Amino acid sequence: LPPGRWGLPVIGYIPLTRKSMEEQIVDLHKKHGSIVIWRMGCQLMVFISDYQQAKEAMAKSEFANRPDWDMFTFLEELPLGVGSSNGAHWHANRRFTLRQLRDLGMGKSKLVTGVQEQARKLVERLKEQANEPKPVPHAMKVAVVNVIWQMVAGKMFDMDDKRMKEFDKLLEDLNAATFALGVRDFFPGLKYLPKFVQNRVFGLDRLEEFKEKFFIYFDELIQEHKASLDPDNPGDLIDAYLLEMKEGSGSPDVVRSERDLALLTLDLFFAGSETTTNTLTFMVQYLAMHPEIQTTMQREIDEVLPKGTLATLEDRARLPYTEAVLHEVLRLSSLLPIGAQHSATKDMHFGGYLIPKGSAICTSAMLMHADPRYWEKPEALKPERWLDENGKFTTKKEGFLPFGSGKRVCLGESLARMELLIFATAMLQSLSFAPPKGSTLDVTADPAVPMFHTPRKQDICITVR
Ligand code: HEM
C-alpha cells in the first residue's frame, strides 16, 4: 500500500497545522515519493506527482470513473451529464459533446466568429476602465460564458443583460452549494442524520432549491428549441441532443432525457467558464509584472494581425511567442492543482503499490508543472522554453498536464485553446497592462479558494495602445 497519512479508521487523518492542504500534499510527496495516500474521513485519496505515472494512470480504464460523490453528482440518484457520469452513459455523452464541438466549433465556424465578437466587446469594456486602477472586470467572465451559450443554445447575451447576470449568480450559488457537500461525502455516516440537521449543516435544501431554479430556467430554453427545431439543420448542442432524443440512443444503458441534457449543459458551464476566465486573468497579471514579455508578445501580434483584425485558428502557427506565453501561464497557474478526481473501480497494482478499490485518484499537476526534471527554474515565466532554435513553437512537452490526460482528458481543450488565443491577441493588440503605480501584483493563487487556483482580485492599470 502507498505510504502517507493513513490516520484512523472512519476519521482518517486530520492535520493539526495551519498549512494549506496543497502545502501538505507537497510535503507528503517530498517525504514519501511520487505516490502517496491521505485518508480523509472514510475516503482514501491517492496523489500521484510524477508526470509519466500520472499519464499511465489516467490511461487506465480502471481509473477512468468519477467518484460517486454527491458534490459531483448534484445529489442525482443516477449521475447524468458528462463530468460526473460513468460507463456507457458517460461515454455516449462525451462522444456526443466532442462531436458537437467539432461540428459547431473549429475552423471557419460560428463559434470562432462568436469568440471574436466577445473578444471585441471585452476589449471595449476594458478600454472603459483605462488609466484607472481596478480589478479585471466581470466582463471577462461574461465574454467566456457567452461562448458556452453560443455553443449550447446558439445565443449570446449583452454584457449587462439582467437574465445573464441572474444565470451567472445561479451558477455561483449551485457551485457553492455542491462544494458544501464535500464533508458529507468523506464522512458518509453523516448522511443518516435527520434531514433538518443536514439542511442546516450542509444546505441540502438550498442545493435542491437552486437545482429546481436551474431546471425551470433550462426548461424554457428547451421549449424554445423544440418550437424552432429544424431536423436538417441543428444549430446548436440543444438542437442536436433533441434530435438524438427523438431517434433514440440505440443503447439501453444510455439515458436520453431533458434532465440529462440540462445537466450536460450545466457541466459545460461549470467546466468551461471559471477555467478559461481565470487563465486569462492570470495572463493579464503575469504580463503586467513582466513588461518585456508583454512587449515582445505585442510586437509579434502587431506583425501578424493588422490593427483591428482578430486572430483565427489559422494564425496560431504564426504566433509562436503568444502560444508560448499562454502555455507558460497554463503551467504556472495550474488551475486544477490536483486535477479532477477519478476513482479506482477495483483493486489495482500501480507504481509498485496496491491501490484499493474506491480510492480517489488525484494527479498533482502543480507538482509536475514545477518539476525541475522538466522545467529549468520552474518558478520563472520563460516563454522561450517553448520555442526551438528557430523560434518555432514546440507542441509536445513532457511534464505538462493542465488539461489532464487519457480517457477523461478535458473535453473542451481545443475550445479553451481557441478562446485563449483569440481573447489574448485581441486584448494585447489594443491594450497594455501594468500594476498600479508604485505597487506590484501577487500572481500566486488566492489562498481563500482551496484546490482550484483562482487569481487574486487586485487592481490593475490598463492603457490603450
Ligand atoms: C483553460 C481552460 C481549461 C482547463 C485548464 C481545463 C482543465 C480540465 C481538467 C484538468 C479536467 C479534468 C480531466 C480529468 O478528469 O482527468 C477537465 C475536464 C473537463 N473539462 Fe476542462 N478545462 C478548461 C476548459 C474547458 C472548457 C472551455 C470546457 C467546455 C466547453 C471544458 C469542459 C470540460 C469537461 C466537460 C470536463 C469533464 C470531462 C469528463 O469527465 O469526461 N473545459 N478540464
UniProtKB/TrEMBL annotation:
One of its GO terms (molecular function) is heme binding. One of its GO terms (biological process) is organic acid metabolic process. Its cofactor is heme. PROSITE patterns: CYTOCHROME_P450. Keywords: Heme, Iron, Metal-binding, Monooxygenase, Oxidoreductase, Signal. Heme binds at residue 410. GO terms for cellular component: cytoplasm. InterPro entries: Cyt_P450, Cyt_P450_CS, Cyt_P450_E_grp-I, Cyt_P450_sf, Cytochrome_P450_fam2. Pfam families: p450 (PF00067). The keyword Methyltransferase does not apply. Belongs to the cytochrome P450 family. This is Cytochrome P450 2L1. It comes from Penaeus vannamei. The lineage of its organism: Eukaryota, Metazoa, Ecdysozoa, Arthropoda, Crustacea.
